[in-house]
Write a structure and sequence with these properties.
Layout lengths: L16 H4 L12 E5 L5 E5 L4 E3 L29 E3 L5 E6 L14 E2 L1 E2 L2 E2 L5 H9 L1
Antiparallel strand pairs: 1-2, 2-3, 4-5, 5-6, 7-8
């Protein structure tokens, strides 16, 4: 409420799965997961990446590391633009990637936009990020 923003995923540098693991025994959860307790006191798990919940512990057979920052180069398509929709959080988060667009296999839903043309935009207002993308 203070900065008038909301976010589905916390910024990766603020994400600490071990803090979120309290209801599930204290072992760190994979990136994007949170543990909670239902009305009957049973632990369940929230996957913020694909917006689902499950009673299955995501740490079973989990071998993936959190996504690492990467640099991508996008070209504007005459009809599809850059082929992604971004949210208004800080940092701005990719919400959707258009099938067949120039961002396919480069961006994923949940990706955080940290830099554009070398400029740090982690804390930049959404309007500024949009202007940088358009330019």
């Amino acid at each position: 409420h203070i900065n008038q923003t909301s976010s589905w995923l916390p910024p990766i540098d603020n994400w600490n799965g071990s803090i979120q693991a309290g209801a599930s025994g204290g072992t760190s959860l994979p990136y994007g997961w949170e543990a909670a307790t239902d009305r009957e006191g049973k632990a369940y798990f929230i996957n913020h990446l694909n917006k689902t919940t499950t009673y299955e512990d995501p740490r079973k057979d989990w071998g993936e590391e959190p996504p690492q920052p990467r640099e991508v180069e996008l070209s504007r398509h005459p009809e599809l633009g850059f082929g992604f929709v971004a949210g208004s959080e800080k940092p701005v988060i990719v919400r959707f990637v258009t099938e067949g667009g120039p961002s396919v296999d480069k961006l994923l839903p949940g990706d955080q936009i940290w830099r554009i043309n070398g400029e740090d935009v982690k804390n930049a207002p959404r309007d500024h990020v949009i202007q940088l993308v358009r330019s």
